[in-house]
Amino acid sequence: MRTITIIINELPYKNDKAWNALRLAGELLNQDVKVKIFLLEDGVDVGKENQAAKGKEYNLEELAKKLLAKDVPFVARSTCLNVCGISKEKLIDGVVEGRMSDLANLVKESDKVLTF
């Protein structure tokens, strides 16, 4: 089975990049591709619980929870979480903290890496 790592760098509702990344992850799962998500920089906010959708027609927290329920791992870089003031308790259940070395391993083990 092919593996694709998706790196999300953008704030959840700044634009539609994070939404498109999570939608793509769902479609890849439907095509029997193993997907892993790494949240980096402002993208760590995608892993935050109780997000405000700010008038958007979609909710990234709900989409992330659906992917987590399908065993898609979500890793948020711990340094970025600290800089953004997001504690472990504020993360969606199932999102784990990781380091740059974890991202390096994901990249090494993946057939492709996509960045949003």
TrEMBL record:
<dbReference type="GO" id="GO:0005829">
    <property type="term" value="C:cytosol"/>
</dbReference>
<dbReference type="Pfam" id="PF02635">
    <property type="entry name" value="DsrE"/>
</dbReference>
<dbReference type="InterPro" id="IPR003787">
    <property type="entry name" value="Sulphur_relay_DsrE/F-like"/>
</dbReference>
<protein>
    <submittedName>
        <fullName>Uncharacterized protein</fullName>
    </submittedName>
</protein>
<dbReference type="InterPro" id="IPR027396">
    <property type="entry name" value="DsrEFH-like"/>
</dbReference>
